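Problem 12. The chain below contains 118 residues. Write out its predicted structure in token notation.
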Amino acid sequence: MGRSNRLTHSIEELLRKIEDLERRLTAVEQTLQQAPPYVYGAGKPSLGSSPLLDLPDALRKTIMSMQSIGEADAQTLATRTGRTRSVENIYLNQLTRLGYLSKVRKGKKVYFRVTKYY
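Solution.
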């Protein structure tokens, strides 16, 4: 009989935990239904209010450094970030294609400018 009581008690405990999970899930579902579908952007869920949060860490480091400088070539930025010029050049061109930066040629050098600060 003792074993039967322990089994009944275990089943009751599991049922209580399942009910608690159902209540929590319902609360989460209600919160999600009340939230706007996206914080910004068209058809793309965002991680937060800043588009920078959606960027990979490497690109975010580049754009944050660029925002503190304003305008720089790949070598200047590479010195600041501690990465090679070629890697930084790739990141700068990606950010340009995404619309975060613009390019300006001055003589033989290409300078990048921040188009929008976050």
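Discussion. The chain has two domains: 1-35, 51-114. Students who got a different answer should revisit the alignment rule from Section 12.3.
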